[in-house]
């Protein structure tokens, strides 16, 4: 059976991508608090929702990445 090797560079890249997704979800939460004039304590009390939304954004952004990888595999030159 073939071993799967995940390099530390790939782990760091995925961590950074998820952190960007989390920051985007946090900014969306801040924008909603400002738009609906809610108390600022909701920035911390809604962190569970922010976490779930960031996971949703992270998995949604996998769709173009998978398509890109598939197209690159499909159109690569045969040796």
Word description of this protein:
With 79 residues, the protein is an all-alpha fold. Helix content is 76%, strand content 0%. It has helices at residues 8-35, 42-45, 47-60, 62-75. α1 (8-35) crosses α3. The radius of gyration is 18 Å and the shape is elongated. The two termini are 25 Å apart. The model has no long low-confidence stretch (mean pLDDT 92).
Q: Which key features would you list for this structure?
A:
single chain; 79 residues; mainly alpha; 4 helices; 76% helix; 0% strand
Topology:
Layout: H1 8-35, H2 42-45, H3 47-60, H4 62-75
Helix pairs in contact: 1-3
What is this entry, summarized?
This is Transmembrane protein. The protein is an all-alpha fold and 79 residues long.
Count of strand segments: 0
Helix percent band: over 70%
Order of helices and strands: HHHH
Average pLDDT, rounded to a whole number, is 92
Class by SSE composition: mainly alpha
Major sheet characteristics: none
- Please give the alpha-carbon distance between the first and last residues: 25 Å
Overall 3D form: elongated
What is the number of domains? 1
Q: Strand percentage, roughly?
A: under 5%
Extract low-pLDDT stretches.
none
* Radius of gyration over C-alpha positions, nearest whole angstrom: 18 Å
Q: Number of helical segments?
A: 4
């Amino acid at each position: 059976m073939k071993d799967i090797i995940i390099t530390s560079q790939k782990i760091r890249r995925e961590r950074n991508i998820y952190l960007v997704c989390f920051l985007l979800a946090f900014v969306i939460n801040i924008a909603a608090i400002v738009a609906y004039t809610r108390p600022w304590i909701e920035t911390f009390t809604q962190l569970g929702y922010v976490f779930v939304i960031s996971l949703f954004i992270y998995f949604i952004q996998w769709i173009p990445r998978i398509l890109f990888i598939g197209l690159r595999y499909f159109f690569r030159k045969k040796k």
